[in-house]
Design a protein that fits this description.
single chain, about 325 residues, alpha/beta, 6-stranded parallel beta sheet, about 35% helix, binds zinc ion
Length: about 325
């Protein structure tokens, strides 16, 4: 996929620790395929991961040079995404059968801020493990993005509203400004996938202080009531993957954060990010899934009636 999805890279990390003040300096860096400040390699779409190797179609053509050469070259070619799959298990060994879920234990994996070039690899991993997740998306009107909204929906995952712009200064100006941005994404989803969504996550979380102007009263207590009146259920999180703590958080930190925070909980909403630079989130995902399964979790998507965690309540 061409790098047509321009994203606002921001971080909800400051809110995780409820120290929202510093995040403004970190946030709102405009990244595109050409202008990435964290290294253009991170932003290059990984078409190799998304498609089977081209040369494999050449296999089995005996007696041609091309066939022989291609066969030699492609022999060790891994299956798509296999570099992300089953890393906890030694090569060549089958994964152990899934442990039975413990009654009442549920994990809701959530991916914020997409779609991005990471969406497809994420979807492939979820497909591989037979797991459904929730994507709190922003508004992108490129054809690539539209096809990803459709793919998320078609593969049985849940779309959630994370505002169109994710622009703190704009959306947290007033209740009406927030709802207008939410409705704009709603229209895009209706046009694209044929339906909207009644679940929502506030950019920065429901206790965010981002976008607040000096002297202005804090909008969030009023805003959470307003979105409920408008028919939405909103979801914060109780397990952070910490993948927004820096542009590229080490994979091992993501895995250990999720697994340690999940340990003593029965129902977890796991915060992760589906943004171009978040390569390690994708790399961590199989271990996160396997680790949660070992703790006895089953996986589900959020809906209006699902367990919710809300910072302001
Ligand atoms: Zn976000």
């Amino acid at each position: 996929m061409p790098g047509g999805i321009e994203q606002t890279v921001h971080t909800d990390a400051a809110d995780l620790t409820e120290q929202g003040g510093q995040a403004e300096a970190m946030g709102l860096t405009r990244l595109s395929g050409q202008t990435g400040t964290t290294g253009s390699a991170e932003l290059t779409p990984r078409t190799d991961a998304a498609e089977p190797p081209e040369q494999s179609v050449q296999l089995g053509i005996p007696g041609t040079d091309a066939g022989t050469v291609e066969a030699e070259r492609s022999e060790p070619e891994p299956a798509p995404h296999s570099r992300y799959l089953h890393p906890p298990y030694p090569a060549g060994k089958q994964a152990a059968p899934d442990p039975s879920p413990v009654p009442g234990k549920v994990a809701y994996l959530t991916f914020d801020d997409g779609p991005s070039i990471q969406t497809e690899p994420i979807l492939a991993i979820l497909r591989e493990y037979g797991i459904k997740a929730t994507f709190f998306v922003n508004g992108h009107d490129t054809e690539e993005a539209k096809s990803l909204y459709r793919q998320i929906d078609k593969e049985g995952h849940r779309l959630g509203n994370h505002t169109y712009s994710h622009d703190y200064a704009k959306i947290y100006q007033s209740e009406d400004a927030f709802m207008e941005d939410v409705r704009r994404l709603e229209r895009l989803l209706e046009e694209t996938v044929g339906h909207s969504t009644d679940i929502l996550r506030f950019p920065g979380g429901s206790n965010t202080r981002l976008g607040r102007k000096k002297g202005q009263t804090w909008i969030m207590p009023r805003l959470v009531k307003r979105v409920e009146e408008e028919g939405f259920q909103y979801f914060d999180w109780n397990v952070s993957s910490t993948d927004a703590a820096q542009a590229v958080q080490p994979k091992s930190d993501i895995v250990s954060s999720v697994l340690s925070l999940a340990k003593d909980r029965k129902k977890i909403i796991v915060l992760m990010h589906d943004v171009n630079v978040k390569t390690t989130t994708v790399e961590a995902l199989p271990e996160v899934i396997c680790g949660l399964k070992e703790q006895g979790f089953r996986f589900d998507t959020l809906d209006k009636q699902a367990f919710t965690t809300q910072f302001l309540k």
